[in-house]
């Protein structure tokens, strides 16, 4: 039993350290979460397009990050409106409408970037609109 105590504690320590480092990266390195968000979506496209999609993400990283921050702020405002006491249904509805509007705007912009990348992958000289 004692023979496994030290190795067990070392493994536990390593696991805690890896978790702590991962938490720090996710919290203080915004590009990391952006890459994680886009990785699954980009991997679903044909291999021939992935390079251009990643290029599009890199070229527009600041814009995309700002849009996602705007969405997060709207979601926080909606959570606050829903949790407010006294509850104001009109405020909650307005906050929910903001989240829906911002989500639609982001979707439109991201689709423009996807189409620009697709055009470049097929040899066209296009830019996101």
> What is the makeup of the main sheet?
none
Low-confidence stretches: none
Beta strand count: 0
Class of secondary structure makeup: mainly alpha
Helix content: over 70%
Count of helical regions: 5
Any idea what the shape is?
Answer: flat
Mean of residue pLDDT values: 80
What brief labels describe this structure?
single chain, 129 residues, mainly alpha, 5 helices, flat
Describe what this molecule looks like in 3D.
This protein is an all-alpha fold. 85% of the residues lie in helices and 0% in strands. Helix 3 (47-59) crosses helix 5 (89-121) and helix 4 runs antiparallel to helix 5. The longest helix has 33 residues, at 89-121. It is flat, with a radius of gyration of 21 Å. The protein starts with a helix and ends in an 8-residue tail after the last helix.
Q: How does the SSE layout of this entry go?
A:
Elements: H1 2-28, H2 30-43, H3 47-59, H4 61-83, H5 89-121
Short description:
This protein has 129 residues and is mostly helical. The longest helix is centred in the last third of the chain and has 33 residues, at 89-121. It has 5 helices and no strands.
